[in-house]
């Protein structure tokens, strides 16, 4: 084989390898969006876990690690948790993209950068003390 054909073959192999790698790992912009989607998904899980915790303990957890112990979920490291008062709290995270999620996730529309979302405990889901089951 001539050296020219060998170089063309090497170039084609390298180019094909790069394309395959991008499809397996994802393109750079895609991975940022996936990262943000994971954060939103974890925020929803944390929000639900906080509500469950409150329903059982009648108080907000002191920190997010209390939720991790409660849910056995260690992926909440990307989320900051702040108590506002006895019934309200914030979940915050750093997002890599500007993104608006589907209609059912409209509460999680965010800009690129650090952003907080405010939540309240749903006290209507608590059992009535006067109503014995």
Protein model, in words:
- It is rod-shaped and about 80 Å long.
- 46% of the residues lie in helices and 15% in strands.
- With 133 residues, it is an alpha+beta fold.
- It has one domain.
- Helix 2 packs across helix 3.
- The termini are far apart.
Mean pLDDT: 76
Low-confidence stretches: none
Number of domains: 1
Q: Helicity range of the residues? A: 40-55%
Shape: rod-shaped
Strand content: 15-25%
Strand order of the largest sheet: 1-2-3
Major sheet summary line: 3 strands, antiparallel
Topology, number of strands: 3
Helix/strand/pairing class, anyone?
Answer: alpha+beta
Q: Helical segment tally? A: 3
Question: What's the order of the H and E elements?
Answer: HHHEEE
Report the C-alpha radius of gyration, rounded. 23 Å
CA(first)-CA(last) distance? 86 Å
Write a compact overview of the structure shown.
It is built from 3 helices and 3 strands; from the N terminus they run H-H-H-E-E-E.
Features of the shown structure:
single chain; 133 residues; alpha+beta; 3 helices; 3 strands
How are the secondary structure elements laid out?
Blueprint: H1 3-25, H2 28-57, H3 64-71, E1 80-83, E2 88-95, E3 113-120
Antiparallel strand pairs: 1-2, 2-3
